[in-house]
Amino acid sequence: MSFADLGLTPGLVRAVTDKGYDAPTPIQRAAIPAVLAGRDVLAGAQTGTGKTAAFVLPILQRLAAPAGRVPRALVLTPTRELAAQVAESASRYARHGTLRAAVIFGGVSEKPQIEALRAGCDLLIATPGRLLDLAGQGVLDLSEVRCCVLDEADRMLDMGFIHAIRRILKLLPRERQNLMFSATYSAGIRELAGRFLRDPLTIEVAARNATAERIEHRVYRVPQAHKRHLLRHLIERGSWQQVLVFTRTKHGANRLTQQLQAAGIQAAAIHGNKSQGARTRALSDFKEHRITALIATEVAARGLDIRELPHVVNFELPHVAEDYVHRIGRTARAGSSGVATSLVAPDEAALLRDIEKLLGHALPASSLPQYEVPSAASDIASHRDDARCLPRRMHAGRPAQGHQPRRDHGAHSTHGVPRARRARGH
User: Fold this and answer.
1) Angstrom distances, CA of residue 138 to CA of 109, 131, 132, 134
2) Same domain, 265 and 129
3) Quick check: 401 pLDDT over 80?
4) Closest Cα to residue 56, out of 280, 282, 297, 305?
5) Which of 125, 240, 277, 359 could in theory staple to 75 by disulfide, Cβ–Cβ 3.0 to 4.6 A?
6) How far apart are CA 75 and CA 89, in angstroms?
7) What percent of the chain has pLDDT over 90?
8) Based on the number of CB atoms within 10 Å of its own CB, is 213 exposed (0-12), middle (13-18) or buried (19 or more)?
């Protein structure tokens, strides 16, 4: 089956071909004809299955041609990154037509976004908070919206956007088409669907809460204090060129980034406390292979679309089991394969059991490789260096210039394998 077989216009088919896609994915085969027919849709699909095109393409076709200055279709997303990704896709798919897309989200100046709205757009992509801000200022007219999409609806609920969503829906015309896309299902999602959708076509292209079949799962049971040393070992010995690493906290992301940089690994952090400019630069550097490791908190678990990303690491397991699915869904996208590695400390055993229960199977445990851990004395010094952000690293067994090596105060056992060595600054 081709995209033309789904009923898309030649201009849209050409735009899809320009992006390098020849055949529609299962979610696209099911959703595009339904959206074109005007049906409400409840779609469940794991990340990386092409769901953005599944709603953007038919929406662009139904909009047909510019009709005015106010948006006629609205896409709500939970994060800035996802909003930017959807907007980029919409602009590319609309490149052979005259429809205009605009994107608004928080964390950046309102002025350019207000100017874009005043210039007019047909399709608006927005995060809930900024949309309500601009609507409250009277610079955003939603009275002509004929199609509303909730993208990553489950994440919307997780992030506490339910009240904002209800306020937004009251600003929209009662007669409209509604589309809801979610990677996972929950009681909250079912309840929201019951209120938001009318006689929807339910599409589920993968088992509920399933992970991509092309993902290889690896679990290393390791003390929390040793995780950064094991991660460094995996990156260096595996010659990893690109790895997305998830931590639970912003502070943890910053600290791990500094530790990897001090070990000679190019890394950057992306989380809610970073400015939008810093987040955009970090993501761009990662996509362009200028950095090896991108350290992210849960806020970045959705919306990061990195083609052929080979490795995702759970430096810390998420407290919510469903978030494991979202995190590792950053790899094995668009038909590629990937490896999801989880570093599990003893106090995370219950979190691992919750994830395995959600997935319906145990995750395979991997044997720990031999990796170096500094002696207690040098590790304390390392923590002191981390706080000062001082670059202390070794290359090919030699200390960095200007630093003298410190002697280990005795053999250190690396998981039952005694190993005497010089301490290395990390």
Assistant:
1) 17, 11, 10, 6
2) no
3) no
4) 305
5) 125
6) 12
7) 53
8) exposed
Note the pTM of the prediction, 2 decimals. 0.63
Q: Does 407 have pLDDT greater than 50?
A: no
52-90: per-residue pLDDT in tens?
A: 999 999 999 999 876 678 999 999 999 888 899 899 999
Place of tokens 């997303």: 77
Residue 318: how many other CB atoms lie within 10 Å: 21
Q: Which token pair is 368?
A: 């720990």
341 and 225 within one domain: yes
Same domain, 307 and 161: no
Residue 70's SS3 state is coil
pLDDT at 328: 83
pLDDT at 186: 76
One-letter amino acid identity for 393?
R
Tell me which residue has tokens 């909250």: 188
Task: Give the number of domains in the chain.
Answer: 2
Assigned domain for 414 exists:
no
pLDDT at position 331, please?
Answer: 72
* Mean pLDDT for the chain overall: 82
Domain that holds residue 293: 215-371
DSSP assigned state of 51: H
Asked if the structure places residue 243 within a domain, the reply is: yes
pLDDT at 421: 37
Assign 251 a pLDDT band (cuts: 50, 70, 90).
very high
Cα–Cα distance for residue pair 67/70, rounded to 1 Å: 8
CA distances from 401 to 18, 250, 392, 395 (A): 49, 31, 9, 10
Residues 162, 220 share a domain: no
- pLDDT surpassing 70 at residue 411: no
Residue 228 makes CB contacts below 8 A (sequence gap 6+) with 256, 259, 260, 426
Is 87 in contact with 106 (CB distance < 8 Å)?
no
CB 318 within 8 A of CB 246: yes
Task: Tell me the pLDDT band of 301, cut-offs 50, 70 and 90.
Answer: low
Q: State the first-to-last Cα distance of the chain, in angstroms, to the nearest integer.
A: 53
Same domain membership, residue 150 and residue 239: no
Q: Which two tokens stand for residue 234?
A: 């995996």
Note whether residue 400 is domain-resident: no
Is the model's pLDDT at 406 over the cut of 80? no
| Beta carbons within 10 angstroms of residue 344's beta carbon | 21
CATH code, domain carrying 328: 3.40.50.300
Rounded distance, CA 125 to CA 104, Å? 6
Do 174 and 40 share a structural domain?
Answer: yes
Find where tokens 């959807």 sit.
Answer: 86
